[in-house]
Amino acid sequence: MSRSTSRPPVTRPSTSQPGGDALLHDVTVLVIFVEGEKAALALTALAERAGRKWLVVGLGGCWGWRAKTGSERTADGSRFPVTGPHPDFDMLALKGRVAMIVFDSNAASNPMVGKAEREFARLLQERGAKVRIARIPQIPEVNGPDDYLAAFGDEATLRILDGATAPGGPCVNPWDAARDITSFLNERDTDMEVLERRVLEREAVTEAFSTRGIGKSEWGTELAVRQAKAGRRVPYLDRAAELARRRDLETAYNRIP
To answer: Alpha carbon 126 to chain centroid distance?
Structure first.
């Protein structure tokens, strides 16, 4: 896929394997998404050695499938960016196609990489793909599939890819159960002393302080989702500038037991 200085880079398949452009439209060919260009080249070479036919796409990072698609204006006149699927994905036929995500090994331990993987899987499913996840083991000195291939060889890497599984169960939209504010205020919860031990207590206010960018919003979302899934009513106060967080809430709702 094409490169752009204004959008996250996505490796054009034809630069890493013969016939890449034709493979974009052949839904019978497995498409494998990896984070980096080196991993894309390594798996393409593996396919050739193993006699497999794959389309391997390097995203340029776990969030490389997403790009700025515009901006929206808030009530106070300021603007904030709106992101969405990278436009280059319109080049790729996905309906009915098996699409495998093979992110780096920290997808299982880094919350942001895991979040990127889940949201990307949902995007592919929305476009009709049959999504599979292959997990690279967390081993010292091994990060991406190219590292694993170099350390353990073709056969071991093929076993991981052949053992890829479907992502978790079907996504649920939490907004389907949302109530209007009048109904919310006219109902009552069962009295209880503690909602979340050491964090949320009856008739108390909990404030969280930290520097920016370390996950306060994600933490707050998880607290709210756990309360909702326990059957408690949770108000969701939303300003225009926070609309982008609605999708984060949906992702958390489907991830948290």
So the answer is: 13
> DSSP string of 63-103?
TTTEEEEEEEE-TTS-EEEEEEE-GGGGGS--TT-EEEEE-
Q: What are phi and psi of 66, to 5 degrees?
A: -115, 150
State the Cα–Cα distance between residues 191 and 16, nearest whole angstrom: 62
Question: What does the DSSP 8-state code read for residue 202?
Answer: T
User: How many residues belong to the chain?
Assistant: 257
Domain 13-162: state its class: alpha beta
Sequence ranges of the domains in the chain = 13-162, 174-255
**Ranges 27-41, 92-106, 179-193: which has the least confidence:** 179-193
Provide the whole-model pTM.
0.60
pLDDT of residue 6: 40
> Which is it for the CA torsion 155, 159, 161, 162, positive or negative?
positive
Do residues 220 and 249 lie in contact, with contact meaning Cβ atoms separated by under 8 Å? Answer: no
Round to whole Å and give the CA distance between 240 and 254. Answer: 24
3-class secondary structure, 56: strand
> End-to-end CA distance of the chain, in Å?
37
- Sequence-separated (6 or more) residues with CB below 8 Å from residue 9: 3, 60, 64
The answer for residues whose C-beta is within 8 angstroms of residue 117's C-beta and 6 or more apart is 62, 101, 103, 107, 133
Q: Is residue 221 helix, strand or coil?
A: helix
